[in-house]
């Protein structure tokens, strides 16, 4: 330890993750008991709003300018700071608890040749640790020895990447040929390695031991967070500890994301502050003028303060006084209220049982609370394909071996021999006792070729059984083999080889044992050329029992086909046709090849490989060049095709999201043919689309074909485009599509299409595409994926969604939201996202309204009090207005409100559009709220002021006094804003009722208590006006004044909303009215077959059409569809059709605002409005017959008027 602690590691002692240099103690918490208060306050006062109110508090402590007590500001400020501090302290407590749990785990450390129990926090770099089966790895360790033969060690990597069993780790020196003794007599060794970094899949180092030099790679490392499995014990040397470990290096903070409403709100707060300054300046000038012209005459009665020597200086002091009084236009509780509402919305997502996957026992999770309303504004979705749209459960479906294709054509759901006798029987593998009974294959010809000894087929399956990283174990005494694969693809290929008689049995660092048709054969494993995203291939070099050296390689077709020997030209052409056929069916393909190596060449190549692996610099580049050298002039064996089925509900989800005007882009590394087929399967692409755009990006190059007369069309992987049905000439555009000079053209081309599928894209390019749309379209983007290759895209988008699937949990850890199936995205956006946006917008509109109505009364009062900065309300009302009287009702609305039920949100995707267009809260809506607040404040002040000018009490005494006026105005204000929030609330719950009426009750209780004799006796200097509230509110004229003020303030709002609802209803208004029974509703059931006729047998998506009672209509796609009917009706009448294209054999009637009248028995042509004439012609029957009205619940009255 003393020797190792002399070295300075990359992570300094000042780093937040580091407790002490080279210590294994981790620290993810931010505070401790001593630092919590100062650090937390410092963080909170970095918020502009908190600093602003602290400044106001300081101003209030200056007697010359403050007409309010200091507690009117400090009470709300302290409350806000306290709530935030409690939340931060709670979060940090759980971080402390987690840290302590991890740091106090026990580990066996070899100290002076004796194993001693040590806490993880006491482990140091250079220590030798013993791990036992099922124990967590304490730090990043170099494997020294193991209980398993050949120094193998098996680990589970769930905490790192969500994987189950990782590849075997090898003993470092001489790849397991020697075992390192661990004790005092062990010869000294030295490890020189890379500096700490966050790359989980890479490690570079060198071990010097016994005068030998050994290469160290990631295969020799046990990383912190892994669990030892299927290994009795192992010893490891601590290389990185604590914050230096790769797990902790990956624990960095994710980039903070802000919503568009947050950014707008910050701008509006600055505008409000500017408005506040303007009001202060106006009132300050008024004070200076009044003091100069009027106040100077009353110096004997109203003398200036000692420090005031002129009217101008009095106006200057008055400016600061009014800044204090009018500060409530910038609400201090706004930000805390927003966070509370967002927290509630996050819990609703977490608690949603309809987004819970029972099969995986995985609920939906909101991993952030700051982006909920942004879910209601998404315009672009960027989706991965494998594991996101598909199940990532791979099935060996077809293959091509030496120019012959095997595998029957079947539907995606398979076929049942009972229902379809023509379907082939699955292949019988009963001859093979080691066959997996779950495996199915429908072409007996392939098995016959194996049994007849076809050498090409044998070599094909031999490659599949050797070229992989799969591990296999027998379960107990049962000969059944249990495979664990790093990827589902490898598992499917090895299982296929197993069933056809080439059974992978076991591996060691130097051998692979395969049972070939019942005979055990052990191959010497000479080298493994690993797969990565750049190489896109994997190779193994083995020596068979006859001593022949052969390289087996499998990989992407674009990579392997160009590395084949020229003698394979004809076979490659046939295989390419098969590959295109497989890709057209949506299958994932790989090409298989081999190469025989001469002994002399291999010896020379292996020596160069050894030297390159020991190179101190550019090691990876040298290895890549050697790999590329040996992987040339290979002989083609064939190709495999694996089926990855769509997840349940993907087509329906994409169809509904498309109706919501959300553009869905699929970004995948697959071939264009595969991606296009998946596009058709999931209904992104439809048969009525004559133009398709598929962008194939190889490296950073993209070739796009644009027709000069039509939109962009199909692009092949090699840049060969076609224009289906195009009449005009085509123009070839070849460019680096994601570079600055071409990115705009690429974006415009892509955005001109209904569907976009980007193929052959790398993880970096996924992020670049998302960033491109963010940069130029200024639209809210959402990225969804399930693998580590989607992390960059997820972090780049405004909202990241992780699918907790079979590719680990790295995507989930980087995401803002997570769930287990793509179909839940529909509910996340259309229900939770739309509601969150609606609630937040209504909350903000009402919040600004009530604060301006409250504050502007002071402004009007200033003109009647000599601009003296006297307040209308008493200081306790000012203190409690935002935190007691009006806080809970608006919070209830912000958390629980909804305009339509969740079922309607799903049935009417067009309800989602207001969020995309930012219609519910923008600068225009903000000014409307401000105008309404100012209007309310004018009436709130001048109506009581006018009434009190001549009003008298019951006993004839003058009613007009300051305290009675203040009570009347305050009571009117509380009642008006309570009635207003009642009007704004669209969904009433018991909580809403309790908070609204409870807040009113609390107001009157506090009001009477503050004017009671009891408080006066306890605090005579604070509560001087005993009985004022009781006496004032006992006067009928006061209640009439309050009632008049309430009616005058509220009636224009009610009238405006009534007229808007009647003359220009929103879609949500119509749907809500339909829900209430005011409309006749006709629903096309999900997948309802149509009657006999041209469209017989087709199915209709889940759409609901509502017809308003007065004849005005709406529909999900265009707001104007009245009802649908089959295309095979007999004709009658001149009708207009929806401008949208017809839906699978259904036409849509569009009477628009006018009533539809058809004389019974009339006939005529049916025409479209705005669509192509060819699509708009269909016969219709006016009454009776097969017109299809009755099944939809609509009826035609005697004069032909449709209701």
Structure, described:
The chain is an alpha+beta fold and 1203 residues long. It folds into six domains: 35-103; 105-180 and 187-251, Calcium-transporting ATPase, cytoplasmic transduction domain A, CATH 2.70.150; 256-330; 358-388 and 647-705 and 730-820, Rossmann fold (3-Layer(aba) Sandwich); 395-407 and 431-644, Calcium-transporting ATPase, cytoplasmic domain N (3-Layer(aba) Sandwich); 833-1064, no CATH class. Helix content is 38%, strand content 18%. Helix 13 runs parallel beside helix 17 and helix 28 packs antiparallel against helix 29 (990-1010). The longest helix has 39 residues, at 824-862. The radius of gyration is 38 Å and the shape is elongated. It starts with 35 loop residues before the first helix and ends in a 35-residue tail after the last strand. Mean pLDDT is 77; it is low at 10-19, 172-179, 411-421, 698-735 and 1077-1203. InterPro entries: ATPase_P-typ_cyto_dom_N, ATPase_P-typ_P_site, ATPase_P-typ_TM_dom_sf, ATPase_P-typ_transduc_dom_A_sf, HAD-like_sf, HAD_sf, P-type_ATPase_IV, P-type_ATPase_N. It comes from Crocodylus porosus. It is an enzyme of class 7 (translocase).
């Amino acid at each position: 330890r003393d020797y190792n602690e002399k070295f300075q590691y990359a992570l300094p002692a000042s780093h937040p993750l580091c407790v002490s240099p080279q210590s294994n103690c981790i620290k993810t918490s931010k505070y401790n008991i001593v630092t919590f208060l100062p650090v937390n306050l410092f963080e909170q006062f970095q918020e502009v709003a908190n600093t602003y109110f602290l400044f106001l508090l300081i101003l209030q402590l200056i007697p010359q300018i403050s007409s309010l007590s200091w507690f009117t500001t400090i009470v709300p400020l302290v409350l806000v700071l306290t709530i935030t501090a409690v939340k931060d302290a709670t979060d940090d407590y759980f971080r402390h608890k987690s840290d302590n749990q991890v740091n106090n785990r026990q580990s066996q450390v070899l100290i002076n040749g004796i194993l001693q129990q040590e806490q993880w926090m006491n482990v140091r770099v250079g220590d030798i640790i013993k791990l036992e089966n099922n124990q967590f790895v304490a730090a990043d360790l170099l494997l020294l020895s193991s209980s398993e033969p050949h120094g193998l060690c098996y680990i589970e990597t769930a905490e790192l990447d969500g994987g189950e069993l990782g590849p075997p780790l090898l003993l470092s020196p001489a790849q397991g040929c020697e075992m390192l003794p661990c004790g005092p007599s062990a010869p000294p060794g030295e490890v020189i390695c890379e500096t700490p970094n966050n790359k989980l899949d890479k490690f570079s180092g060198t071990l010097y031991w016994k005068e030998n030099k050994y290469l160290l790679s990631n295969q020799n490392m046990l990383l912190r967070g892994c669990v030892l499995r299927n290994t009795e014990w192992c010893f490891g040397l601590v290389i990185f500890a604590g914050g230096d470990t790769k797990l902790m290096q990956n624990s960095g903070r994710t980039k903070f994301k802000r919503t568009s409403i947050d950014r707008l709100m910050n701008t509006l707060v600055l505008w409000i502050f500017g408005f506040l300054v303007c009001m202060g300046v106006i009132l300050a000038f008024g004070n200076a003028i009044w003091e100069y012209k009027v106040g100077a005459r009353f110096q004997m009665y109203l003398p200036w303060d000692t420090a005031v020597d002129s009217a101008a200086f009095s106006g200057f002091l008055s400016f600061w006084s009014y800044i204090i009084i009018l500060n409530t236009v910038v609400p201090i509780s706004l930000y805390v209220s927003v966070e509370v509402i967002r927290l509630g919305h996050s819990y609703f997502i977490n608690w949603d049982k309809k987004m819970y996957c029972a099969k995986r026992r995985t609920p939906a999770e909101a991993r952030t609370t700051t982006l909920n309303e942004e879910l209601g504004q998404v315009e672009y979705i960027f989706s991965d394909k494998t594991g996101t749209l598909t199940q990532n459960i791979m099935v060996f479906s077809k293959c091509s071996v030496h120019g012959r294709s095997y595998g029957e054509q079947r539907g995606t759901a398979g076929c049942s021999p009972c229902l379809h006798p023509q379907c082939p029987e699955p292949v019988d593998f009963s001859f093979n006792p080691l066959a997996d009974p779950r495996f199915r294959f429908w072409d007996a010809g392939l098995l016959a070729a194996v049994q007849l000894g076809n050498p090409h087929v044998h070599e094909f399956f031999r490659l599949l059984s050797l070229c992989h990283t799969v591990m296999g174990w027998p379960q107990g005494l049962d000969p059944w083999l249990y495979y664990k694969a790093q990827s589902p693809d490898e598992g499917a290929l090895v299982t296929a080889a197993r069933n056809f008689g080439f059974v992978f049995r076991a591996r060691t660092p130097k051998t692979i044992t395969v049972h070939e048709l019942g005979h055990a054969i052990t191959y010497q494993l000479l080298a493994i050329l690993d797969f990565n995203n750049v190489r896109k291939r994997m190779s193994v070099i083995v020596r068979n029992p006859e001593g022949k050296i052969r390289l087996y390689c499998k990989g992407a077709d674009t990579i392997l086909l160009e590395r084949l020997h020229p003698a394979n030209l004809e076979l490659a052409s046939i295989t390419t046709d098969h590959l295109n056929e497989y890709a057209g069916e949506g299958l994932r393909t790989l090409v298989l090849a081999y190469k025989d190596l001469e002994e002399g060449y291999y010896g020379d190549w292996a020596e160069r490989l050894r030297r390159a692996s020991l190179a101190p610099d550019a090691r990876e580049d040298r290895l890549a060049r050697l790999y590329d050298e040996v992987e040339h002039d290979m002989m083609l064996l064939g190709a495999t095709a694996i089926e990855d089925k769509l997840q349940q509900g993907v087509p329906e989800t994409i169809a509904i999201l498309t109706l919501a005007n959300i553009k869905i882009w699929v970004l995948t590394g697959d071939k264009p043919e595969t991606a296009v087929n998946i596009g058709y399967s999931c209904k992104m692409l439809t048969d009525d689309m004559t133009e398709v755009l598929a962008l194939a990006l190889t490296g950073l190059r993209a070739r796009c074909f644009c027709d000069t007369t039509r939109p962009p069309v199909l692009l092949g992987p090699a840049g060969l485009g076609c224009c289906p049905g195009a009449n005009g000439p085509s123009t070839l555009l070849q460019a680096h599509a994601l570079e600055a000079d071409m990115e705009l053209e690429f974006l415009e081309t892509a955005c001109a299409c209904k569907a976009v599928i980007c193929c052959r894209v790398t993880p970096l390019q996924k992020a670049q595409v998302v960033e491109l749309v963010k940069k130029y379209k200024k639209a809210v983007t959402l990225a969804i994926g399930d693998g580590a290759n989607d992390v960059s895209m997820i972090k780049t988008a405004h909202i990241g969604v992780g699918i907790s699937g079979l590719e680990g949990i790295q995507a989930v850890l980087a995401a803002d939201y997570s769930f287990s199936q793509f179909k839940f995205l529909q509910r996340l956006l259309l229900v939770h996202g739309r509601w969150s946006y609606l609630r937040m917008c209504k909350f903000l509109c009402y919040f600004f309204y009530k604060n301006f109505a409250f504050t502007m009364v002071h402004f009007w009062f200033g003109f009647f009090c000599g601009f003296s900065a006297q307040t209308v309300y008493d200081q306790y009302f000012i203190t409690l207005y935002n935190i007691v009287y009006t806080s809970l009702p608006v919070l209830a609305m912000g958390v629980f409100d909804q305009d339509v039920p969740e079922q309607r949100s799903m049935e009417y995707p067009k309800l989602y559009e207001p969020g995309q267009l930012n219609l519910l809260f923008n600068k225009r809506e903000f000014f409307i709220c401000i105008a309404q607040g100012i209007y309310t404040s004018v009436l709130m002040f001048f109506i009581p002021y006018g009434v009190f000018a001549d009003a008298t009490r019951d006993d004839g005494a003058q009613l007009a006094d300051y305290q009675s006026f203040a009570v009347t105005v305050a009571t009117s204000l509380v009642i008006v804003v309570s009635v207003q929030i009642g009007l704004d609330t669209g969904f009433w719950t018991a909580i809403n009722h309790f908070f609204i009426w409870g807040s009113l009750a609390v107001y009157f209780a506090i009001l009477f208590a503050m004017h009671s004799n009891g408080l006066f006796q306890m605090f005579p200097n604070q509560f001087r006006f005993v009985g004022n509230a009781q006496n004032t509110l006992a006067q009928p004229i006061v209640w009439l004044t309050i009632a008049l003020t309430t009616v005058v303030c509220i009636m224009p709002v009610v009238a405006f909303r009534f007229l808007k609802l009647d003359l220009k209803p929103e879609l949500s208004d119509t749907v809500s009215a339909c829900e209430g029974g005011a409309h006749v509703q006709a629903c096309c059931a999900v997948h309802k077959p149509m009657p006999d006729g041209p469209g017989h047998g087709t199915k209709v998506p889940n759409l609901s059409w509502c017809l308003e009672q007065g004849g005005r209509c709406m529909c999900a796609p265009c707001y104007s569809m009245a009802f649908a009917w089959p295309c095979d009706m007999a004709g009658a009448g001149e009708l207009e059709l929806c401008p949208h294209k017809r839906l699978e054999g259904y036409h849509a009637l569009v009477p628009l605002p006018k009533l539809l009248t058809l004389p019974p028995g009339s006939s005529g042509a049916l025409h479209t409005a705005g669509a192509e004439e060819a699509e708009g012609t269909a016969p219709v029957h006016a009454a009776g017959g097969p017109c299809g009205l009755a099944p939809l619940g609509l009826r035609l009255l005697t004069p032909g008027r449709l209701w």
